[in-house]
Amino acid sequence: PVPDFAVVLDTSGSMNLNINTSSEDEAWMAQVGGALPDDNPRKARVLTEPTRLTVAKQAFAAMIGQLHPDIDTRLITFQGCEGTVDQGVFRRDARQQLLAGVGQLSADRGTPLAASLAKAASLVDGRLKDALVVMFVDGEDGCGQNACEVSARIAREQPRLRVNVVNISESKLSNCIADNTGGRVYAAREVGEVQKMLREAMEEVAATPACAGAQATGQ
């Protein structure tokens, strides 16, 4: 059977920051910059394109382009600390609709990382059959929950669920999610890098597995 597949796409406010924003600039934005006018030079620099969200969208599109035709995609986004949004399941014939919808997403408010992980896990199997969740995130939970604890619980209850984390910032605070579930962490600072890593991350759900060429030449 094909594995269950879900994607969590971080749409919190920090995804509006430039992809190369330092941790110092991110802290400054949270404490000071947010209240300053948009023409403040430092703030303007931190908010220039390509933003983290732009890179995440491009990487997401590349991933969907590599996806095996038999695999459906469930998409989960954020709605501040109030909760998460299950955008639904998209079959092969709805992938263009999925990409168009993702292209329209904007980023604001908090980061319910733990809640989104729990939501994704609740919507896939991971017990009787394999499941994969890919999370495009830029930091830790910002809503008072512990994503590391949630991932440890998932590892116990859904041993066939792996979570790959595509990290779109300098923060390593969400790496525990992948570590606990047997997944991998990918540092995504530019689109080309992300696409290369996704090739590996998506191997079990890709239309043409990365190892297929090596197997063919070995026969």
TrEMBL record:
Residues annotated as domain VWFA: 2-199
Domain of life: Bacteria
Protein name as it appears in the record: VWFA domain-containing protein
Database matches in Pfam families: VWA_2
InterPro entries, sorted: VWF_A, vWFA_dom_sf
